[in-house]
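quick one before i forget lol
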Amino acid sequence: MDGPGLVRRGAAAVLAAALCGWLSTLAPPAGRVELVAVQAAREEPKPQPKREPPKPPPAPDVDCAREKCVALTFDDGPVPGTAELLDMLDARGVRATFFLVGEKAAEHPELVRREHLAGHELGNHGYTHADLGAASRERVLSELRRTQDVIRDVTGFTPVLLRPPYGSMSKTLTREARRLGLSQVLWSVDPQDWSERDTGSVEERVVEGTRPGAVVLMHDIHGSTVDAVPEIIDRLRDDGYVFVTVSQLFGGRLAPGEEYVERESGPPQGRP
């Protein structure tokens, strides 16, 4: 072979060797690959166990077929003044039922959470306090579902009670409430606290109107009503009444879509 051919072969060999060296830098040794894989596995974050939302303490066992039970209910909140009411109820060991307006619940989630964790019952009162009895099916579903979602997101609890704003009902509302698993709760004692903002008047009307099995309607958006609550509780308790949530009052036997005003069968007026 002539001189130029040898030169070309030598240059090719040098080039091939250089190429092999370069490729070796791109592919790390097998041991190195395994080490990197192990390190990556160790560094990968482990999935955290899903935390259950806090739950309220269990409700006391009360037999409203034997006890003089009354359910205090509060509509239209929560509002900042609801915190004072919760302090009053906590100080007296009373559980109540709150029918929440969805947009206010979204605005004050800390109060919704506090109500739930204190053992009070939470119910649906529509998202904007619209007249659901006169609303279309689409409006009814929007009002109810949005409120359910807000309360569930804040507490992990899904309401089973509905209080139609203004007590306004319809076949459409009843049908959709049944589909959503909501029982419709009205009231048997109404002190008209939304009209007459007088603490003494609210107190007298509630105490005089209450009988065993009663569902009392009040509004925690009115300071005059909140101020009446301590005396209402003390006077009814002195008369032998036991304070329960709506579901406790009816023994947990409320059917979706059905209407409830008060517990019809109660104990004698005095304790046995």
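fyi The first helix runs from residue 3 to 26.
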